[in-house]
């Protein structure tokens, strides 16, 4: 029983935003642990198909590109229909696709609010709802299905960057994770979230282009790696994580929970 605790042998998974960055790290991790098929989505078809080809060549299972914009209800329904047409059961859904927007408080545009809230909060809810049938079909008490939402440490602590809708969206997603978990656990679908700290990506250009600078602000002294992200996703997706329900795991080298803070600022100092 303890031998294959982290195995994902034969699992069917969907990772939204799997063409690059954190989604790609997770898709690779699921395949490395034996997932049979991992579907990845993105808006741009070329990079999505390129990543699918690369991951299929690298691992035993198959990675399949479904390039669809999931920021609208029409896109969400199209993606769900594509999955349901191909798979009667879906073991793992990773709601990873996300967007950010930064602007001064006095200039912050409504478009930067709606774009971020729609993709980061509305889409995970309605995509999970649209895929409830294949998730329920895959789920049993012995082997629950998994929904893993990719939040952010910006939803836990206050990032000084003026990314108002992003912070609200990620905090909202963390609480939505708890609320959905409380409902779906009764169908043996386990909902959890990961709150990443800095990982190299197009979204986090600071971590990608100024790694040493960013690492100085991380208690662990480094930014996150593919292994850090894949490892947590594999844990939550596999038998090893079955009893973790509604929780959000910060994968951040200690930024949120192991940060000594500003000397002299505490009430008891
Ligand atoms: N990197 C970090 O340090 C960090 C830290 C905390 C949280 N996160 C979270 O991790 C997740 C992934 O971020 P990342 O850093 O890997 O960002 P990224 O490099 O920008 O990747 C985002 C992925 O989502 C896809 N995507 C974006 N909009 C989409 C849409 N409307 N429909 C379908 N796919 C879409 C992108 O492909 P297309 O552009 O082709 O659509 C891409 O595959 C996000 O939720 C982000 O908030 C990241």
UniProtKB/TrEMBL annotation:
Keyword field contains NADP: yes
One Pfam family this sequence matches: adh_short_C2
Keyword Hydrolase: no
Keywords carried by this UniProt record: NADP, Oxidoreductase
InterPro entries registered for this protein in UniProt: NAD(P)-bd_dom_sf, SDR_fam, Sec_Metab_Biosynth_SDR
Coiled-coil positions: none
Family per record: Belongs to the short-chain dehydrogenases/reductases (SDR) family.
PANTHER family in the record: 7-ALPHA-HYDROXYSTEROID DEHYDROGENASE, 7ALPHA-HYDROXYSTEROID DEHYDROGENASE
Protein name (record): SDR family oxidoreductase
Organism of derivation: Bradyrhizobium denitrificans
């Amino acid at each position: 029983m303890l031998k294959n605790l982290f195995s994902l042998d034969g699992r069917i998974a969907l990772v939204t935003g799997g063409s690059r960055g954190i989604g790609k790290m997770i898709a690779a991790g699921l395949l490395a642990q034996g997932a049979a098929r991992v579907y990845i989505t993105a808006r741009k078809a070329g990079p999505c198909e390129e990543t699918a080809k690369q991951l299929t060549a690298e691992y035993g299972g198959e990675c399949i590109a479904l390039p669809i914009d999931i920021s609208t209800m029409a896109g969400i329904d199209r993606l769900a229909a594509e999955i349901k047409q191909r798979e009667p059961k879906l073991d793992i859904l990773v709601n990873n696709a996300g967007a950010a927007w930064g602007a001064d408080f006095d200039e912050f545009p409504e478009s930067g609010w709606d774009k971020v809230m729609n993709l980061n909060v509305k889409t995970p809810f309605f995509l999970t709802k649209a895929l409830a049938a294949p998730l329920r079909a895959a789920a049993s008490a012995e082997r629950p299905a998994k929904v893993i939402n990719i939040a952010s440490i910006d939803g836990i602590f206050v990032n000084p960057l003026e990314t108002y809708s992003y912070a609200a969206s990620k905090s909202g997603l963390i609480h939505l994770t708890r609320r959905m978990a409380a409902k779906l656990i009764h169908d043996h679908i386990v909902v959890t979230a990961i709150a990443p700290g800095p990982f190299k990506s197009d979204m986090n250009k600071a971590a990608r282009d100024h790694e040493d600078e960013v690492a100085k602000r991380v208690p662990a002294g480094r930014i996150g790696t593919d292994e850090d992200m894949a490892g947590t996703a594999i844990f939550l997706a596999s038998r090893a994580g079955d009893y973790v329900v509604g929780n959000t795991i910060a994968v951040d080298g200690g930024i949120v929970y192991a940060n000594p803070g500003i000397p002299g600022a505490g009430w008891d100092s």
